[in-house]
Amino acid sequence: MTPEKMRAAFVEELVRVAPDIDPATLADDDHLQDDLELDSMDFLNLVSALHRRLGIEIAEADYGQLSSTRSAVAFLLARQG
């Protein structure tokens, strides 16, 4: 998957979990919890959605890698099979 397609997939799942986020104003470095105010349950729902969609295992120890769109896309690209 290309970086652009991975970013699009990530943003789609993020907006499904948190529909109040406007993808047009989403900056790649916005922190999901600090800037976008995702709570812990929304974050876990996002992790589950990404796993279902992409088939990528995301261990709890790796959650920090998903702190922003930029870091999440890089992590997911590195882990894709």
Write the layout of secondary structure elements.
Elements: H1 3-17, H2 40-54, H3 69-79
Helix pairs in contact: 1-2, 1-3
Which CATH top level class fits?
Mainly Alpha
| Residues in helices, as a percent range | 40-55%
What is the name of the CATH topology?
A: Non-ribosomal Peptide Synthetase Peptidyl Carrier Protein, Chain A
The biggest beta sheet is recorded as: none
Name the CATH homologous superfamily.
Answer: ACP-like
Please describe what this structure looks like.
With 81 residues, the chain is mostly helical. The protein has one domain (3-79): Non-ribosomal Peptide Synthetase Peptidyl Carrier Protein, Chain A (Orthogonal Bundle), CATH 1.10.1200.10. The chain is built from 3 helices and no strands. α1 (3-17) packs across α2 and α1 crosses α3. The mean pLDDT is 96.
Entry summary:
This protein is an all-alpha fold. The chain is 51% helix and 0% strand. The chain has one domain: ACP-like (Non-ribosomal Peptide Synthetase Peptidyl Carrier Protein, Chain A, Orthogonal Bundle).
What characteristics describe this protein?
globular; 3 helices; mainly alpha; Non-ribosomal Peptide Synthetase Peptidyl Carrier Protein, Chain A; 81 residues; single chain
